[in-house]
Amino acid sequence: MAKKIKPFRIRLLIFCIACLLAACSPSTPSNQIRLVEVTHSLFYAPQYVALSKGFFKREGLNIVLTNGNGGDKTMATLLSGDADIALVGAEAAIYVTARSTNQPVNAFAQLTQTDGTFLVSRTPIPSFKWSMLKGKNLLGQRRGGMPQMVSEHVQRINGLTPHQDVNIIQNVDFKNLGNAFLAGTGDFAQLFEPTASKIEQAGKGTIVASFGKDSGRLPYTCYLAKEKWLAQHPDLARRFTRAIYQAQQWVASHSAEEVATAIQSHFPDTNKDILIRVVKRYQEQQSYATSPIIEEPEYNHLLRIMKESGELPKSIPYSELVNTEIASYVVKGG
Fold first, then answer.
1. What span, in angstroms and rounded, lies between the C-alpha atoms of 151 and 168?
2. Which PANTHER family does the entry mention (predicted)?
3. Helix 296-308 and helix 146-157: axis angle, to 10°?
């Protein structure tokens, strides 16, 4: 006859199995932050400085960085819970919030405060004016993305009607824009760095204007997190923001050469001279934010640009989307 197992032993066995499964199952360490960036770009230099100079480590944080390869994929990664924080354009948060409030997200810190694209001309133009785009073919960016909306904004404030006065080509993937321009597409191209500087260095084009300089300040690239995550992990969010703030201040107080040296390991395939040229250009036009606080006037400017482009699905109030408590606490020395 089989031995009858006593209820106590059954409960003990279940408890031991549960403990074993808990020990074997993956968990997120309390000091780890899974960060997904919309793309890997020199435009985000302060973030890489925070990594290479040990600012995150000083805060006791282990950053696991992944590339989201686009706004939609980056937001999907955040909303699915596969990332804790996303570095992406603020417009992505607006689109998500306008569609649903089931998983509210907050922008709690900014990294860049201007657009990061430049106008590249196929031929040198010593005294460029935006009116010179009239009747020309402009190799542009994706519809609905902030770079394209900024381009149209700059055209409007300079007396041009986008898609009417300027033929904007938008059927080329982001990753292929540089090659398309080199192959002969467009009289002008709207390009991010380092693609713009590489084309200029090769003598295949000339940077004649800056979209960031001429469109004004706005919370261009921000750190987003689920509202629930921020409420559950306020200390992690503060330590993360503190590291970013320290990096922003470091970038603002050091030369382009020093910044380029600090981030070189994150861009091993990019020539040091190009790194210096790009960082200097972004520093000169103050693209790198010196504070993580997202200001309301800049946020409203972003909404206006989206609205005039016909891409604003709903006007999301600043108080609903932006969380200033964390950044303000850090900037005040907390």
1. 10
2. ALIPHATIC SULFONATES-BINDING PROTEIN-RELATED, TAURINE-BINDING PERIPLASMIC PROTEIN
3. 80
For residue 63 the two structure tokens come to 């950053």
Same domain for 225 and 281: yes
pLDDT category, 310, cuts 50, 70, 90? very high
> What distance in Å separates the CA atoms of residue 94 and residue 89, rounded to the nearest whole number?
9
C-alpha to C-alpha distance for 218 and 317, rounded to whole angstroms: 15
Of 152, 183, 215, the residue that ends a domain is 215
Q: How far apart are the first and last CA of the chain?
A: 69
Alpha carbon distance 196, 270 (integer Å): 13
Domain containing 146: what range?
117-215
**136 located within any domain:** yes
Phi-psi region of 235 (alpha: psi -120 to 50; beta: other; left: phi over 0): alpha
| All residues at 6 or more sequence positions from 4 whose CB lies less than 8 Å from its CB, including other chains | none
Q: Which of 162, 165, 135 is nearest to 150 (CA)?
A: 162
**Half-sphere exposure in the Cβ direction for 35 (13 Å, CA):** 24
d(CA 11, CA 22): 16
Those residues whose C-beta lies under 8 Å from the C-beta of residue 15, and which sit 6 or more positions away, are none
**Structure tokens of 135?**
């009747």
Nearest-5° Cα angle at 282, 279 to 283:
85
**Residue 88 and residue 68 in contact, taking contact as beta carbons nearer than 8 Å:** yes
Report d(CA 99, CA 92) in Å as an integer.
Answer: 11
Angle at 192 between CA 297 and CA 150, to 5 degrees: 35
188-238 pLDDT per residue, tens: 999 999 999 999 999 999 999 999 999 999 999 999 999 999 999 999 999
CA distance 82 to 26: 13
